[in-house]
Amino acid sequence: FARRTPIGLKKLIKIYKPRTIKIILLAIFGLVAIHLFLPGYMSLQEALMPENFKETYLEMRRSVDMFYKDLFVNQGFFNATTGFIIGAIIPGICEEFIFRGYFQNSLEREFKPFWAIAITAFLFAIIHFNIINLLPLFVIGIYLGILMYASKSIFIPMFIHFLNNAFS
């Protein structure tokens, strides 16, 4: 679809080299700040969660933790590398091309940047099919959208998305 746009693929998806190392360092600092916020949010969410949902929630968290442990820890170097590629590299590239590159930039042509970022972040959160982490996914989507808008380059949100997934 992006190739058929009259403005050109490079301009639509903002395939431009980042202007300075400063924006990359600020982006990394912001990601660290988000990861400092998330444990507190998750604790608050668990504390406010209705008792009848808490056991289901904890079971879901245990299964996700076991999945990642099996993928990265117990299966050797090859499977861990494959898991890293599937869990961090591919989503960092593909999701950013889709959400920030195509959706957000297309929406920016019709709406103010605030709404383009918010709508894209909401879609980003919803598409992960994780109701428990909906707000953190939305916050990360907002952050990646702001990075895209501020840097005018898809490579900054792509790199930060990769770091986020690798850290997670």
What brief labels describe this structure?
mainly alpha
Number of strands: 0
Sum up the overall morphology in one term: globular
Query: Would you tell me the structural class of the helices and strands?
Result: mainly alpha
Number of helices: 7
Can you characterise this structure?
With 168 residues, this protein is an all-alpha fold. It contains 7 helices and no strands. The chain has helices at residues 9-13, 21-48, 51-72, 76-108, 113-127, 134-151, 155-167. It is globular.
Fold topology:
Elements lengths: L8 H5 L7 H28 L2 H22 L3 H33 L4 H15 L6 H18 L3 H13 L1
Helix pairs in contact: 2-6, 2-7, 4-5, 4-7, 5-6, 6-7
Structure in a nutshell:
With 168 residues, the chain is mostly helical. The chain has 7 helices and no strands.
